[in-house]
Amino acid sequence: MFRMFALLSITLMALSPALLLAQANDDVAGAAAAGGGCLACGGFLIFIVLGIIALNIALLVWVYRDAQNRGMENAIVWLIIVLVFGPIAAVVYLFSRTKGNLVPCSHCGARRLDVSAKCPHCGNA
Asked: Per-domain residue ranges for the chain?
């Protein structure tokens, strides 16, 4: 979130001198073009930053749900580790998670490992 505000403030700071210079030279059209270009570039960068934030949130949700479905007791710990260390921690999680296929539970319908004796969600076999 801080990066988004920083990019917006940098864009506005870059826009101000161009407008002042244009007013001094009576070149309003050039200043408008420069300001529009800076604004378009800043908007694109904000879009990129928001996309990266959305992908990180999706990665966090996937790691937490996958850890819960596999019956891992430390799903919150993995969520915090991936939050702090990012995609590198997600790769480590992929190699260290419980192996097996996820199938729907016959009682509650939630996903569980096919080799587990009990469903981690409802506790039935």
From this structure: 2-113
How many C-beta neighbours within 10 Å does residue 81 have? 17
Model pLDDT, residue 11: 65
How many residues appear in the chain? 125
- Whose CA is closest to 49, among 13, 22, 82, 11? 11
Q: Are the CB atoms for 15 and 38 separated by under 8 Å?
A: yes
CA dist 40 and 124 (Å) reads 56
Residues sharing a CB contact under 8 Å with residue 18, sequence separation 6 or more, in sequence order = 31, 34, 35, 38
Amino acid at 56: N
What pTM did the predictor assign? 0.62
DSSP character for 112? E
Q: Which residues contact 114 (CB under 8 A, 6 or more apart)?
A: 100, 101, 102, 103
Q: What is the pLDDT of residues 12-43, one digit of tens each?
A: 566 566 555 655 555 666 766 777 777 778 88
Q: Residue 107: what residue type?
A: H
Amino acid sitting at position 110: A
Number of CB atoms found within 10 A of residue 119's CB? 21
